[in-house]
């Protein structure tokens, strides 16, 4: 693990700083947060391997942003909508890159002999959290780091963990939430400040995929029960401080898998995926679990729901046409439109 300090790693592991000190001028003067972005970034293998694309949610016009010999995955918009962070295997290892929304100014941020993944933007500044696993360790362990994109200054967030997996930043930027599936004594949801202090354990069950509500008052997450995956809600016990314990509320029931919760921008509604109809379909529900409504009705899998910035639409992935394609629909499930028709698998949308 120690050999990794000094490299810029990305979403699950240790690091060693060995990157050219190129200033990222395109970030200078960027203001966070968001400007209304009508483009959806996604991954497609239509050209032979996985590359990053963007598609306009209204016109359906798409363009390729990356073009190299290794797969590119996990694209994430910056809060201001000007940049995209993603994971690339162009060099053989997984590294974190940043590119502009026009496909210009490509910058490689990490150079770690291992696996860097899961880039997550801070809510109000050009900083990425990520996971890094050093090739030298070989023990399956991973750690979480953060990197200031302009200076490439890094902070180690977790230490000597088994295999941390990153959730996301709290909306106020105070916490990073992460989780462990194994070993049993490390299971559950955890919080840590981005500077690497104040470790807080929120839950101790088989909990994963946590997502903060935009107002910062709740965390939706998935729990693996004996018979199914179930969506839960956590909130601070004293309604103000996450480090004083949480109250949990179970939102879905029935003995079938419910997963991939995604918050509406108003923090009052969740989209999610459910297998209650025999195959994955997109549903919505209120934040207390009420009014669960089915939005898609296909014999094929519908997955990966993501809200538009204004909350009026959802983008998702469907396998209805054989390969995976990107579709968009209104918040009530109406006016479903197919945005990609390229014959490849189009996945991992972010809006």
Detailed description of the structure:
- The chain is mostly beta strands and 351 residues long.
- 0% of the residues lie in helices and 43% in strands.
- It has strands at residues 39-44, 51-56, 62-64, 72-77, 83-88, 95-100, 107-108, 114-121, 127-134, 143-148, 154-156, 165-169, 176-180, 188-192, 200-201, 207-212, 219-224, 229-236, 246-250, 258-263, 269-274, 281-286, 293-294, 302-307, 313-321, 323-330, 337-338, 346-350.
- Strand 8 (114-121) and strand 9 form a beta hairpin.
- The chain starts with 38 loop residues before the first strand and ends with a strand.
* Separation of the first and last Cα atoms: 35 Å
**Largest beta sheet: strand ordering:** 3-2-1-28
- Tally the helices: 0
Number of β-strand runs: 28
Relative strand content:
35-45%
What composes the largest sheet?
Answer: 4 strands, antiparallel
CA radius of gyration is 19 Å
- Sketch the topology as an H/E string, one letter per element: EEEEEEEEEEEEEEEEEEEEEEEEEEEE
Give the uncertain stretches in residue-range form.
1-36
Query: Which of globular, elongated, flat, extended, rod-shaped describes the shape?
Result: globular
**Residue-averaged pLDDT:** 87
Helix proportion of residues, in percent?
Answer: under 10%
Supply the helix-strand structural class.
Answer: mainly beta
